[in-house]
Amino acid sequence: MPDAFERRRRVRRTFQGRVSCDKFDRGYENYTNLLRDGYKIRIFLNDVEQAHCLIADPDEGWIMRHQIAGGKPVFVGRVPQTEIVKGNISIRLERQFRSGDSDE
């Protein structure tokens, strides 16, 4: 019989909406709010986790990520190159901490 008082620390949740680490993109506010509320944001394209993702929009079905070659980002001069990839996008959240919790 499961414990009635068990607290689950990591409950898988999904987020429906655009997230972006670009300050000038409309998904930036969602991104900062989720981080502030203690969530780790994980982006999946066709059920494969994506690293180096800058923008994810599950409604439109695309992500923008850094181009990677040989495990390293691709640069032209000093400018990192990006690519837009379309597919089935899901944004999964994991609670890292609750806002207002202190680490003291």
Task: Report on this structure.
The structure is a single chain. The chain is mainly beta and 104 residues long. It has one domain (13-95). The protein is built from 1 helix and 12 strands; from the N terminus they run E-E-H-E-E-E-E-E-E-E-E-E-E. It has one helix spanning 28-36; strands spanning 13-15, 19-20, 39-45, 48-49, 53-57, 62-66, 68-69, 72-73, 75-76, 79-80, 82-86, 89-95. The strands form 4 sheets. A 4-stranded antiparallel sheet has the order 1-12-3-4, covered by helices on one side. Strand 3 and strand 4 (48-49) form a beta hairpin. The protein is globular, with a radius of gyration of 16 Å. The model has no long low-confidence stretch (mean pLDDT 87).
Radius of gyration: 16 Å
**Mean of all residue-level pLDDT scores:** 87
Share in helix? under 10%
Overall morphology: globular
Return the structural class: mainly beta
How many helix segments?
1
Q: Secondary-structure element order, as H and E?
A: EEHEEEEEEEEEE
Q: Regions with pLDDT < 50 over 5+ consecutive residues?
A: none
Report the β-strand fraction as a percent range: 35-45%
Number of domains: 1
Strand order of the largest sheet: 1-12-3-4
Oligomer: single chain
What distance lies between the first and last C-alpha atoms, to the nearest angstrom?
Answer: 34 Å
Largest sheet: 4 strands, antiparallel
Query: How many strand units?
Result: 12
Quick summary:
With about 100 residues, the chain is mainly beta.
Keywords:
four-stranded antiparallel sheet, mainly beta, 104 residues, 12 strands, 1 helix
